[in-house]
Amino acid sequence: MSTQNVALGAHYLHVATAIFQSQKALAEKAMAQVGAEELHWHPDPESNSIAILIKHLAGNMLSRWSDFLTTDGEKPGRNRDGEFIDEGASHEALMALWENGWNRLFVALGSLSEEDLQKTVTIRGRPLTVLEAINRQISHYGYHVGQIVYIARHLAAQRPGGDAWQSLSRPKKR
């Protein structure tokens, strides 16, 4: 890699880390506005609750980011289907799972060098560059963080008065 590419690679890793941190913070701000019981609410039997999304995101992070450069991102011991079953875990248990997943991601991401971005990793047997794999996860986590925010916002709107929601961005008409 040229010197310019190495600098660009370092910048990319910094930006990717910042995006993941922002996604985590956004979801946490939304979840902070939801009661422990509400984490398990879902609009219909086929939809996810926040609790299920926490389990799925954490399961994905633990699988994808463990031994990131050396093993397939879909670990044999992962029970992906089980991530979509809400077993009524406590708020504390869900938050511990959440933190464990994000910690695994940030440790793995922090260990990468600019030169690693062009290496090949596999996810479900599909070869991807490290850069592509990171982008894939940014997109995937952003999708589910958006679902968490949407559910939390919906629940806040259902409360008496319907204005219990504290905006996570610039409020409308301001």
Give a quick precis of the structure:
This protein is mainly alpha-helical and 174 residues long.
Describe this structure in words.
The protein is mainly alpha-helical and about 170 residues long. The protein contains 4 helices and 2 strands, in the order αααββα. A hairpin with a 2-residue loop joins strand 1 and strand 2. Helix 1 packs antiparallel against helix 3 (about 90-110), helix 1 (about 5-30) runs parallel beside helix 4 (about 130-160) and helix 2 (about 50-65) runs parallel beside helix 3. It is globular.
Shape: globular
| CATH overall fold name | Four Helix Bundle (Hemerythrin (Met), subunit A)
Number of domains: 1
The whole-angstrom Rg is 18 Å
Strand tally is: 2
Distance between the termini: 47 Å
Outline the low-pLDDT stretches.
none
Helix content: 40-55%
Helix vs. strand class: mainly alpha
- Strand sequence of the main sheet, in spatial order? 1-2
What is the CATH class name? Mainly Alpha
State the helix count.
Answer: 4
Strand content of the residues, in percent? under 5%
Mean pLDDT score: 93
What is the name of the CATH architecture? Up-down Bundle
Task: Say which CATH homologous superfamily is assigned.
Answer: dinb family like domain
H/E topology pattern: HHHEEH
The major beta sheet can be summarized as: 2 strands, antiparallel
What's the structural blueprint in terms of helices and strands?
Layout: H1 3-31, H2 50-65, H3 91-110, E1 120-123, E2 126-129, H4 130-158
Antiparallel strand pairs: 1-2
